[in-house]
Design a protein that fits this description.
Helix content is 0%, strand content 62%. The protein is mostly beta strands and 136 residues long. A hairpin with a 4-residue loop joins strand 1 and strand 2. The model has no long low-confidence stretch (mean pLDDT 83).
């Protein structure tokens, strides 16, 4: 799989900004002041790997898609706290040893399941509290 990645940080005004990496993860933010920020984020990922010969040398592909919202606040001079909540969707496919993978530009391939010998998927709610330290 080939994924061209574009990193960006665009400020539309003093309050609105769009940042992240395309097509993997993007974040739209609204800044209330220098200490508080809210926003939404979207993300996608695709990983492929071979299992060991003990597992019949099968090929496994995992796909992940997520969307959510966040609230970020400066709690001290160099520390930020972030509360985020969103939905994560996972899909996993297993293929025979000689399975080939098509070259795609985007990280999710929705036609991948047609030749899978095994597959599963699930969706979950994710809630996260993070503390960040910034040197500058």
């Amino acid at each position: 799989m080939i994924v061209p990645i574009l990193f960006f940080n665009i400020k539309y005004s003093d309050k609105w900004s769009l940042s992240g990496s395309f097509p993997l993860k993007q974040k739209l933010s609204y800044c209330f002041d220098n200490k508080k920020q809210i926003g939404i984020s979207l993300g996608a990922a695709n990983n492929s790997f071979r299992l060991s010969k003990a597992k019949e040398n099968r090929y496994v592909n995992t796909q992940q898609f997520g969307a959510g919202c966040f609230y970020q606040q400066l709690v001290a001079k160099h520390f930020k706290m972030e509360l985020s909540m969103g939905v994560q969707s996972y899909r996993t496919f297993a293929y025979e040893e000689n399975q080939s993978s098509p070259i795609t530009i985007f990280p999710l391939n929705f036609n991948k399941s047609e030749n899978a010998i095994e597959s599963f998927s699930y969706t979950s709610l994710q809630i996260q509290l993070s503390l960040y330290y910034s040197i500058f």
